[in-house]
Amino acid sequence: MPALLRSKRLPMDLLRPLLPEREWERVHAYPVHDVGLGTDAFGTRREFLGFAYALGYWLHRYYFRVVSTGHEHLPREGGGVVVGNHSGVLPFDGMMVGADVFRYTEPPRLVRYMVDYFVYQLPFVGGFLRGVGQMPGTRRNFDGLVEEGHLVGIFPEGAAALGKKAQQRYELLPFSHGHVELAARHGVPVLPFGLVGAEEQQTMVADLRPLARALRLPYFPVTTTFPWLGPLGLLPRPSRYFIHYGPPLRIDPDALRSIEVRRAEVERVQDAVAELVREGLATRRQHTGGTP
After folding, report:
1. In 10 A of CB 75, how many CB atoms?
2. Which of 101, 128, 190, 217 is 20 to 30 A away from residue 12, measured at CA?
């Protein structure tokens, strides 16, 4: 990892050229309530946030050329659960949704994803993710974030959705129940989105499951470029992203007491995400004639 990221504090003067001034002002506007050592209660550092947003902004604007709609459905304040489809071998989709929300909300809002523990175990990764506001996916972390009024990001298909093969494009895996239970317990809305474009950034042709189990990974991808080109084979194609946010969904509190109600609410959320994905596919056809 570069020395810049190993340092306990990233020099602000080195970060400034990475973002337009108006976007740097957004980084400064985001409230990081310092509880000591330059971090908030969840480990977020403004310097790390600035570095991550600089990278995310560049990818969002110039590489994936993100087109997004429905920002009016994102709340200006208060907690919420941001939920959508997941794909693409590597989770650039989550990064782009995070950059999009931060860029187009007033005041800027940070989506704090619940990250699988295996990711936090990767060298250097866990500390950096915590520094940019992302947390291990535990109930305690979720409760603390929502109670403090943060937006929490969850992919209910799980990490396995990143390993979808080409023939499964834009087919949603069954959603888990956790996001519905947590939203119901805290009385916060589910904020659905559908994302189109990540499925085309990599073409997954096989999953070496024995190797994945040996490495304690949810999948081990074989794509048209990986492992044949080494680590470079994991670089995504610059397929254009289309993100659609839908109206907030209020979860029936009975979902905490009835498995039937819970299942119905999970199905309602999944149907909303599926409809937003269909809208994204239609928008892409209008913009590009269907070409990724």
Report:
1. 15
2. 101
Pick the CATH number of 68-201+236-287 from 3.30.450.20, 3.30.43.10, 1.10.10.10, 3.40.1130.10: 3.40.1130.10
Domain assignments of the chain as residue spans, ordered by start: 68-201+236-287
What is the rounded average pLDDT for all residues in the chain? 89
List of residues 6+ apart from 28 with CB closer than 8 A: 46
Q: Which amino acid, residue 179?
A: H
- Residue 57, pLDDT > 80, answer yes
Residue 178: is it exposed, middle or buried by C-beta count within 10 angstroms (0-12/13-18/19+)? middle
Q: What is the pLDDT of residue 292?
A: 64
Q: Which residues contact 2 (CB under 8 A, 6 or more apart)?
A: none
Residue type, 71: H
The tens digit of pLDDT for each residue in 3-51 reads: 444 444 555 666 677 789 999 999 989 988 888 778 888 888 888 899 8
pLDDT in tens, 184-239: 999 999 999 999 999 999 888 888 888 888 877 778 888 888 888 888 888 999 99
